[in-house]
Amino acid sequence: MPRDVREAAARDNADWCAALCASHGSVGRIDADAWSVPRRSPQWYPDAVTRRPGADPEALLSRIEGGPGASVKDSFADLDLSGHGFEVLVDAQWIHRPPTDGPAGTPLAPVDTAQRLAVWAAAHGGGELFRPRLLTNPRVRVLARYDERGAVTGGAVVSGEGVVGVSNVFTRTGDPADIWRGVLATLPGVPLVGYESGPDLALAVEAGFAPLGPLRVWLHP
Hints:
By secondary structure, this protein is an alpha+beta fold. It has helices at 3-22, 57-61, 114-124, 176-186, 198-206, and strands at residues 29-30, 34-36, 48-50, 71-74, 87-97, 109-110, 140-146, 152-159, 164-171, 192-196, 210-219. The chain has an eleven-stranded mixed β-sheet with strand order 1-2-3-4-11-5-10-9-8-7-6, with helices on both faces. The longest helix is centred in the first third of the chain and has 20 residues, at 3-22.
């Protein structure tokens, strides 16, 4: 897979992390090497994301708040942060689906009000992580699957322009494949990227995504 597609996935994910942190009032720094925030990011989100291979570890770590809880998404799995007190938290794979017709599915519905976002976030499990300010970002779309009673049964977040990132895919019904099909039906003919690991990676591959290459998340315990 061409490296530029992998770099596009890394850049898109960095932009999504920037948007999530900005919704919490934490404005970061972005340049060719990485995106980063100077103070601890919200739960489950890294303090820095590399945007191209070959980032300098010491320069990268100087941009974030050090110590326990610090985290870095090593987008190309080419850093060694073990000498700085970090341990590998997650190994995963970037994924890509070219702009082809997807399997038959029903599009997901947009989440477009603060009240609906709160319900979606509760179903997702992220709660206060997802704040209404996200809905004002034109590059971010929160999507939901509703049942016949109007309850949220699953959803996802898509972000970016051109190449679109898929993240936060979840289900409460035991049929995650339906959510992946829903994402494809919502964005027909659009190149999609993201990252997954374990059983979630297998589901993405089943939906037509191909692995792009490894990434790694480092955590300072």
